[in-house]
Design goal:
The chain is of the alpha/beta class. It contains 8 helices and 5 strands; from the N terminus they run βαβαβααβαβααα. Strands 3-2-1-4-5 form a 5-stranded parallel beta sheet, sandwiched between helices. β1, α1 and β2 form a beta-alpha-beta unit.
Length: about 240
């Protein structure tokens, strides 16, 4: 059997990165990277990361301390003085949960590690079309970062940045995860709580609506489960 190439998957512990890992596993040996950046649900996300890694038998794991992002602030995820706003799935504004330039920080760490361990790809579970509208989730951003990675690494280093779900809707991502047997029950998406998911933050709303659109029950526990499909019809 031909040995698979190694890739790094940036795994937050959320649904999108879990499905991205399932996609990467089809063609690569996996290494998982996780960023602790002082987010409200840091401990719960780390737990999800390790449980997903255990599920896939991932031995190579790197947990990186980027607490400077909390010191920088500017996001409701890292600053307790900024409220995590209730979900508004129709808004075009960048939500308070946006962490300034977070994906650039994640990519620099993953590309550094990839070069050090001779990984051929970095997978990121960014979503653009059916997401919160974060500027660092745009396809153009990742294309630009690919160029930066090529210019900033050794001539013989070849690392591709892969964003396999960037153009999918949340419903399509969930369907892909179910098709691949991804452990969605182990994931954590909530921005506010670590005991049970709140059900009303932007991330919970997008996730719940995705499950509702395909007529499936989200396997994680919620404090409340609003009907986001009927909310859309009311508008």
């Amino acid at each position: 059997m031909e040995e698979k190439s190694l890739c790094i998957v940036a795994v937050s512990g959320g649904l999108d990165s879990c499905v991205t890992a399932a996609i990467a596993k089809e063609n690569y040996e996996l290494a998982f990277a996780h960023i602790n950046y002082g987010q409200r649900t840091q401990a719960r996300e780390l737990k999800a990361f390790n449980e997903i890694a255990d599920f896939y038998g991932v031995k190579k794991r790197l947990v990186i301390d980027f607490s400077h992002l909390a010191q920088i602030g500017g996001s409701s995820l890292t600053d307790s003085n900024i409220e995590v706003t209730l979900a508004d799935l129709e808004t075009k504004e960048v939500p308070t949960s946006y962490v300034p330039f977070r994906n650039a920080n994640i990519l620099t760490a993953c590309i550094s590690w990839a070069e050090a361990i001779n990984a051929n790809a970095v997978f990121v579970g960014a979503v653009h079309e059916d997401s919160s509208g974060y500027p660092d989730c745009r396809p153009d951003f990742f294309r630009a970062f690919q160029i930066a990675a090529e210019l900033g690494t050794k001539p013989e280093t070849k690392i591709s940045i892969e964003t396999p779900i960037i153009h999918l809707t949340k419903a399509e991502i969930i369907e892909k995860g179910l098709e691949l047997g991804a452990p969605l029950h182990l994931t954590w998406s909530c921005y506010k709580r670590e005991d049970v998911a709140c059900g009303v933050c932007d991330s919970c709303a997008l996730r719940l609506r995705g499950f509702q659109q395909i007529g499936k029950e989200d396997p994680i526990e919620y404090a409340v489960r609003p009907d986001y499909l009927n909310k859309e019809e009311e508008k």
